[in-house]
Amino acid sequence: MNFYESTLDTIFTRIEAVRTAVNQHQIIKLVAVSKSVEPHHVETMYQAGQRAFGENKVQELARKNQALSTLPLEWHFIGRLQKNKINALIDLSPSLVHSCDSLELAVAFNKRLHVKEKTLSVLLQINSAKEDSKAGVMPEHAIETYLAIKETCPNLVLKGVMSIGAHTNDVALIQQSFETTYRLYESLTPHGAKVCSMGMSEDFELAIRCGANMLRLGSVLFT
Ligand SMILES: *Cc1c(COP(=O)(O)O)cnc(C)c1O
């Protein structure tokens, strides 16, 4: 039994406990955020049964993808994106980009994807607590932006929404930010939204209570 098997076990037990408590029937997908660890940790986590991993820098994703190219891993990109990294990211064919945060960025992606005759699955990042320090579209513009991306970017496959909980110790405010994202997710399900990516190491149980079906966990898994 490797070290990470018991870590994953503990996390899945915590996830199931909340799911049962709030009668949540959706399957919850876990993305292991590996940004702070070297590839051999990813490999050990893979051997423990984990398949989806998240990185927030294109170069790091490229490096780890290369180092672990023999493993059937599913890479998620969760970081802020500069336009000059779009081509490099597309060439890595990530499973899902969580951090599409404007129509402008979506259009830039679409243009390059069109040239390369590829498609890419993305989430629309929402700045649900309206924080200056965070990327994402403002909640009041989320629906129109989502629909505009759907309309104008045929090479993007919009899968849903992502957000980071409010940066505060006030649990009520964090909850509010998750509820904002979940409400938008619900309104977008008739337009094909299937993923509500929210919840990190410090707040994932609350995120599940608020309806998250994809969690991005780093420190709680790797330390
Ligand atoms: C780092 C990161 C995470 C994971 O954070 P932890 O607190 O280590 O679980 C999740 N989402 C994003 C966007 C991140 O940058």
TrEMBL record:
Q: Residues bearing N6-(pyridoxal phosphate)lysine?
A: 35
| InterPro entries cross-referenced by the UniProt entry | Ala_racemase_N, PLP-binding_barrel, PyrdxlP_homeostasis
Taken from the record, one Pfam family name reads: Ala_racemase_N
What are the coiled-coil residue ranges?
A: none
Stretches assigned to the Alanine racemase N-terminal domain: 8-222
- Keywords tagged on the record: Pyridoxal phosphate
Gene3D superfamilies according to UniProt: Alanine racemase
Cite the PROSITE patterns for this sequence. Answer: UPF0001 (PS01211)
Tell me where on the tree of life, at the top rank, the source sits: Bacteria
| NCBIfam families reported in the protein's UniProt record | YggS family pyridoxal phosphate-dependent enzyme (TIGR00044)
Family named by the database record: Belongs to the pyridoxal phosphate-binding protein YggS/PROSC family.
Role description: Pyridoxal 5'-phosphate (PLP)-binding protein, which is involved in PLP homeostasis.
Q: What is this protein called?
A: Pyridoxal phosphate homeostasis protein
Organism lineage string: Bacteria, Pseudomonadati, Campylobacterota, Epsilonproteobacteria, Campylobacterales
